Amino acid sequence: MTTGQNYIGETLSTKGKTTFKTINPEENSANETVFYEASQDEIAQAVALAEEAFKIYGTIEDAKKADFLDAIADEIEVLGDDLLTTYIQESGLPAGRANGERGRTTGQLRAFATMLREGSWVEAIINKTDGKPDIRRMQIPLGPVVVFGASNFPLAFSTAGGDTASALAAGCPVIVKSHPLHAGTGELVSSAIIKAAQRTGMPNGVFSNLNSSGIEVGKALVEHSSVKAVGFTGSITGGTALCKIAANRPVPIPVYAEMGSINPVVILPSALKLESEKWAKNYAASIVAGTGQFCTNPGLILGINSNELENFITILALETDKLEPACMLHPDIKAKYESLKSEVLGQEGYTQQTNLKKEVKPNYALQNVITVNGNTFLKNKIFHKEVFGPFSVVVKCDDIQQLNTIIENLEGQLTGTILNSDESELKDFKEVIQNLKNKVGRLIFNNVPTGVEVCSGMTHGGPFPASSDSKFTSVGLTAVKRWVRPVTFQDWPNKVLPVALQDENPLGINRTVNDIITQNPI
Description:
The protein is 36% helix and 19% strand. By secondary structure, the protein is of the alpha/beta class.
């Protein structure tokens, strides 16, 4: 059951005067709970608690942090159907998606717990040579982190999602600026985190959850001098605004923002000749999946003009039209989809391919596929825009040279995909593949971009504007690297060094000793 309150550490609070409600997009009506926007006092209290908690949590052993993360996963599962019901009421997403996203969220938490128990994530490096300084280095946490919940993933990219899980794993207290579209879901998950913190003896202030329907609370958090880093998943406008606020502070801090992407797909001639129908069906489903509300939605498909490409486009449009429209996350998101779609369809030089015309409920989105030729796409950047929803542009390129030119002129992307049915063909498209690799964080072969596996090898990020820093990922175990910094200890007595750097290697972790990776003691 939700109450509409803010979690200031372990304390529920309603000091703010501004209130709001979430929306049930399926029913196009407000949900019952009234949420209180966090006041300036509550913001200050949450940050002060986080700063104090960091003194303990930043030095706590990894095994205890692992117990905390496992306990969060357990407590989320204990919420049971109450969590799933609230999720569905606030997002319009189906029960299967809610259940799957809960599993992804708890799985992430447990994966970071496993990483902590193994221990090598601290990247211990030791240089110990006679006659030279004794140099030892490891990663340490930055301090309090602010995490912004994402609109399109109420669980996996929000309150206890990847940013929060990785920051807590690093040893950083977290203050979540809950997303107003699913504040009730966020409050329930916050209750699970607080219970887990109490169960495992974590300091008060290791986690807080603040509500806000506008930008003021988030802005105040990013500006606060005690906040050391920010995690964000959302629009290019929102992400770049936070980056500017953080950069203009007296002491700038990093903002790790995952933002916009149209995820180009290059379908090579062999795939068009041999598997055109297969890929058309797969991509129709990918375009419409989740009502197109994935950051990895395939918004751009590139091919070289041919009869086979025309056949692919025809099948893609027919298969896309066959799929039932679905509900978007919020009336505002539906309105934004219609606005962006109208902007693109207001341009000259495209051909409408889909022909879905039917009456739908207020927040349902009609899917749309259009085509343009390569010259039009190069000349008009409007066709490059991300239309957040079930929308895709197919570009008919004149030849390989124009395909390369288009890829070279694309903005940074989260993913890029190559579809191919004859590996011998790949050598002819070596430059295309290289150019695409330079634009993306994840290069996919013969698959769809929708779906991001949570594992240590995943990169969910990419060159700007896909993310604010392409060296990092927001998904997978290496996401922890965003919340730490290296510190070097020179000529310190062995017994007072951090355990990870002591001669005996009490933790039994992998360390780089005199440039050799080993678990052996010195």
